[in-house]
Amino acid sequence: MSPGQIAALVAAGAFVLLVLLLAIPLIKLGRTLDEATKAIRAAQERSDPLLTGANTTLTHVNTQLERVDGITANARAVTGNVSALTSLFTATMGGPLVKAAAVSYGISKAVRARRKRREAGSTRRRRGR
C-alpha cells in the first residue's frame, strides 16, 4: 500500500466517524421534533372544545347586548316622553300654580301680620288698664 492509499483510508475512516458523531444529535433532534408535533396535536385537540365554548359564549353575549340596546332605546323614548309631558304641564299649569302659590303666600303673610297687630294691641290694652 502506498502512502496515498493509507491517507485515503484514514480520511475515509475519519469521515465515517464524523458522520456517526453528527448522526447522534440529528436523531435526538428528530425525536424532539416528533414529541413537539405530538404536543401540538394534543393542544389543538384540547383547544377545539374551548374555542367552541368561547364562540357560544360570545353569541349569547351579543344576544344580551342586543336586548340591552332595545332597553336603552325604550328608556330614551320614555325619557323624551317624560320631558315633553313635563314641558306641557309647566306650560299649562305652571303659571296658574305659581300665581296660586303667590296668592296663598301673600294671604298667609297678611293674616300673620294682622294677628301680630291684634296681639300687640291687646297687650297694650292690658298694660294700659
UniProtKB/TrEMBL annotation:
Pfam families: DUF948 (PF06103)
Name used for this protein in its record: DUF948 domain-containing protein
InterPro entries: UPF0478 (IPR009293)
Membrane-traversing stretches: 6-27
Transmembrane in keyword set: yes
Keyword set, alphabetical order: Membrane, Transmembrane, Transmembrane helix
